[in-house]
Amino acid sequence: MMPLSQSRENAQELNEILVTPRTQIRIGNWNVTTTYTAGKSAQVARVMNQMKIHIMGISECRWTGAGRVKLSSGETVLYSGRDDDQHMQGVAIMMNQEATKALIDWSPINERMIKARFYSKFVKVTMIHVYAPTNDADEQTKEDFYGKLQEVTEQVHNHDMLIITGDMNAKVGNLVNGLGRVMGRHGLGTVNDNGERLKEFCDFNEMVITGTVFPHKEIHKQTWVSPDGRTKNQIDHTLVNRKFRTSVLDTRAMRSADVASDHYLVRSTIRLKLKRAPAMKSTTKRFDTQKLQNHDIHRRFTIQLKNRFQVQSHRNKDKTVPRGSCDANAFTTASNEEKNRTAESKLPLAVKLCFYCKKPHDLDACPEFIKKQSVHERSLLRQNDHASATQKMVICLKIARRE
Questions:
Q1: What is the DSSP letter of 171?
Q2: Side-chain half-sphere of 280: how many Cα atoms within 13 Å?
Q3: In what order do the strands lie in the sheet with 161-167?
Q4: How far apart are the C-alpha atoms of 389 and 383, rounded to whole Å?
Q5: Cα separation, 38 vs 56, whole angstroms
Q6: Residues 265 and 348 in one domain
Q7: 266-313 pLDDT tens trace
Q8: For residue range 117-139, what is the model confidence (pLDDT) as tens digits?
Q9: Which residue, of 97, 126, 193, 313, has the greatest Cβ tally within 10 A?
Q10: Residue at which a domain ends, from 222, 252, 270
Q11: In terms of Cα–Cα distance, which of 370, 374, 395, 399 is closest to 384?
């Protein structure tokens, strides 16, 4: 953990949970061209609050060095820039007060990459924001960027929800071509070299390009517009690891957000979706002990149990046990096993009674309950004249299945 990071204990003391199955969070992704001009950070924070965004990755912030800044409006900015005092490139993560309380640690990687991890009760969230080289950059620059991104991705905890946002400068197109696990059919334009690299990275790390999954109008897919307004592309992307794909509810461009940039704000809505754990069936056998009230059954059970304990005691005598030692656990286990064997041979298993009629069968097989339920559904079908054809068909199928 770096010196600029927040400790995990401090984050848990604040007891702020970022993502839950009942609440939604919004992740932003925006190339704002620069935040080095006066008042630009406050303008970005204002738009962030208007769009109700919890965490927003910022590309081309053009700040130098690395650090943490709290704005007068309450937002916190983590930034990572160049070390040579040149105000170029640079990335940042802006958080509202709720997300700031959930921050566990963060790491400034370089002028093109920054990572932050957030606390949650169910699953931790790791966000990596990047600013990729343009498609015209030399091959070595691209290789270095994706190599570093792969190195940072491999350091993420396996159980974390991984979100990668940024200006990828990658056009992935709308052709799946056997990569249905990586992207959807709602991309935009044609693929370029950076797009191929991005898809290969997603396929290797089991990531999904969420901007191509949801059907939207083309104006809500476009994330960049040329200065003359003629060329529009989808080059800003939000990625999520595949096992949390269903937790992403939507990803689209927000055209109303404006900070004098040639990029549109990309907003993703996330609500955690967890897999239901299978119910564990009880393996404990329940015996019908009421049968022991019968004198004959009680006598046979007692005799059988005494005989089994006598056999067990003879077996224990044959074993050489050191003097003064006593294995109480083994004796208790053997006693319970003998009792269970005797009960299985002399006592029947307890029968589960129906909740409705108190007879020995399940509720789903109770003829009286089925009859009453069918009468209720028929009356409901007659009374509800405004029910749709699908609802009526479902009720009729339930009645026919029972009869």
A1: -
A2: 3
A3: 103-110, 113-118, 125-131, 161-167, 236-241, 207-209
A4: 14
A5: 20
A6: no
A7: 999 999 998 877 777 666 666 667 777 788 877 887 877 777 767 666
A8: 999 888 999 999 999 999 999 99
A9: 126
A10: 270
A11: 395
